[in-house]
Design a protein that fits this description.
Elements: E1 2-5, H1 10-19, E2 28-32, H2 35-41, E3 46-49, H3 58-61, E4 67-71, H4 79-93, E5 97-103, H5 114-126, E6 130-136, H6 141-144, H7 147-153, E7 155-158, H8 170-181, E8 191-194, H9 202-213, E9 218-221, H10 224-233, H11 239-252, H12 263-268, H13 275-282
Parallel strand pairs: 1-2, 1-4, 2-3, 4-5, 5-6, 6-8, 7-9
């Protein structure tokens, strides 16, 4: 039995869809805060209430699950404790293998996001359970979800300078996760560095948007503080989230969002889509 946490989130939904092409619905269980929402999405898949912040409820919810996909939580700053709650409950419940969605080079990355992932990985590895770590790179959607605003303004703002970004789509990472989860014995003990095949800079992204749409897009390079303020004032993001994105792009200048590994390609058995393809799909 495979359990998937965060199954109603963006990565979780896509993972379930890929799993259902490989496994029967009765071999899956979604572990979510709102089982009714999950049932509306995946009517044939059983769902259990699961809240990372309520440790006393987690062990029972994991009963009968042999492989658990722990999708990292969204509450930055609280994830070390939340993930520890899940890992400890999984061990008590007799989960055999834990698969975790981490961050590219979490053990050495300078991104502020890395700290919680690194601590989670260490706890998993010390738990005694079999594990697979999926160190996901940057999501291409972090850029394409704001594509219309870029086109309207004719400007792409960013703090990554000319650092290279080896992103992939959520769908790519979800499909890779499903491939691992359905052939778990072949992957136990592995830590995968997952990055897309098509590397680009923000200038390259602006040029690609222009090429696809025929509209001129200028790349405006900013420092960390300027970009953080832009994300708050123009994009309307909360200060904490703006800090995370600005920090990530700031470190991208020094390779923080790049990766030379072909492990995502190998897990998928195909190349990840080109930047041009993803932009076209996003329009």
């Amino acid at each position: 039995m495979i359990g998937i946490t965060g199954a109603t989130g963006q990565l979780g939904q896509l993972t379930i869809k890929h799993l259902l092409t490989k496994e029967s619905a009765d071999s899956l269980i979604t572990l979510v805060r709102d089982p009714g929402k999950s049932q509306a999405m995946f009517a044939d898949v059983a769902s259990r209430h699961f809240d990372y912040s309520k440790p006393d409820t987690l062990t029972d919810a994991l009963t009968g699950i042999t492989t658990l996909f722990l999708i990292s939580g969204s509450e930055i700053g609280q994830r070390i404790e939340q993930h520890a709650n899940v890992i400890d409950a999984a061990k008590r419940a007799g989960v055999k293998t834990l698969v975790y969605s981490s961050l590219l080079r979490a053990d050495t990355s300078s991104l502020m996001l890395a700290e919680e992932h690194k601590a989670t990985e260490q706890r998993i590895q010390a738990s005694g359970m079999d594990f697979v770590i999926l160190r996901n790179g940057w999501y291409t959607e972090n850029y394409t979800q704001g594509l219309q605003a870029v086109l309207d303004a004719g400007v792409l703002a960013g703090a990554a300078g000319y650092g290279r970004i080896d992103s992939a789509t959520r769908n790519d990472y979800a499909e890779a996760a499903a491939n691992v989860l359905t052939d778990i014995s072949a992957h136990k003990g592995n830590v995968y560095e997952l990055a897309g095949d098509a590397s680009f800079t923000l200038q390259g992204y602006a040029d690609a948007v222009s090429a696809v749409t025929g509209k001129p897009v200028h790349f405006e390079s900013m420092n960390y503080e300027g970009y953080k303020q832009f994300l708050q004032d123009v994009a309307g993001l909360p200060e904490g989230f703006a800090h995370v994105l600005a920090d990530s792009e700031h470190h991208a200048k020094d390779g923080g969002l790049s990766g030379s590994s072909d492990e995502l390609h190998r897990l998928l058995g195909r190349a990840t889509p080109s930047l041009i393809e993803v932009i076209k799909q996003s329009l």
